[in-house]
Write a structure and sequence with these properties.
490 residues, Sodium/glucose cotransporter, mainly alpha
Length: 490
Amino acid sequence: MDIYLIGVIVYLLILGGIGVYSSRSVKTQDDFMVAGRKTSALFLAGTLVCTWVGSGSLFGGAGLAFRSGISQLWMSAGAWVGIAIVYFLAHRVRRISQYTLSDILEQRYNATARLFGTTAIIIAYLTIAGYQFRGGGRLLNILTGIDPLLGGAITCAVVIGFTVLAGLVSIISIDLMNGIIMTLGVLIALPLAYFSIGTDHLVTLPADRFAVFGQENAVWAMGVFFPTFFLLMGESGMYQKFFSAKDESTARRAVVGMIVGVIIIETSLCLLAVVGSAKYLTLSPFLLQDGSLDKATTETIILHLARFDIPPVAGVLLICAAVAIILSTANTFLMIPSTNISRDIYQRFIRPDVSDRAIIRFQRFWIVGLGILAFVLANFFKSILDMAFTAYTMVGAGITPALLAAFLWKRVTVPGGVSSIVAGMGVTVIITTLNFILPEPLMETDYIILPAAGTSIVALIAVSLLTAPSPEEKWKPFVSNMQMNRQEQS
């Protein structure tokens, strides 16, 4: 059996053992949904890094770096800036002690905001989970030669198994190891790939591969910057994991670890892809007969380097890092929408008195159903990057403006928040649908965030200013002590 495949199987068995051990502690809804609210800063930082660095970075971001060079970091930088802002919100999110982001939306706005927010999260997160499955299918195709569709189905089954096992307890338990493997894998691979390919290849790269905007311009840079920026600040999995922290201070310290880990891993992935492009830019299957690059194939550059260009031991480690990236993100992005359905719809509107045992059983059922649905939906998109930008925009434009306003703008009103969510979702759905049915796309996925987020923000501000201010009991839980002291002094 191939050494790379053996490495993947052994790694999955180790993670499976950790998951089985963790499942013994799951007894209540708090255990399954928010890991009993006792996660330490180290484990929380590890799982936050693993939540963010997924197939969007491993495949979509790497493919963009292969085609555009280091200007791909504009896409990554959006998340970095978003994390820096989240640092100032993490402790306040933990203080509220809810279960889901939709809980926050209802507490600050109303049940309508919860329903629309839940809908946006489910659509976006199924898309994100789906492209993790596609990424797993590509990985298995490179390792074994099996059809990527079958590989995606196998990945889907493995992810469902891990997520069903112990919920968020299982995810957090295995993510510390995943984070370590991810970091070691990319940091060791980068210099080895550089020396393997050699400077002779690197000097042949076009100069624009090292330009600030590459072959594009500032508008394009903002188009790839803002989807990750807005998504990060409205990322439901991150907020749910904040709720799992032991206390407010733990949540805030974990964000520091998150930003360091994400910057290191995403920058290394970008540079790996650029190094790989020096060798493969003019080779099949990356280059098509008409002289253009195959977008989907360029997204596999990291796996090609692991399999064919660096020593086997480092290659196995990088392949395991890829498994960690795919598995850890897919787990979270199945866990979140299943929690939304269980908590924000079933428990909130259908069976408020449901028992802990029954709600856990109900959520496990939906993890399986949503996993299968995500696998099916993944086949409607041409590339992982297209799926990533669409999902990022759904959350970034549909939820983030209203969510940030809940914490940062006392004057935001219930109609303003609901209008913002509906407007952001609506523009995203309309443009995405037209892109599917029109002979030529109405707008490239790189740019959808600009009209969608713009419309959402305008609706938020305009409707809030045109409606009566919210009563104090609506905004007070979201305002920091420092803000309240300043208001009292003034």
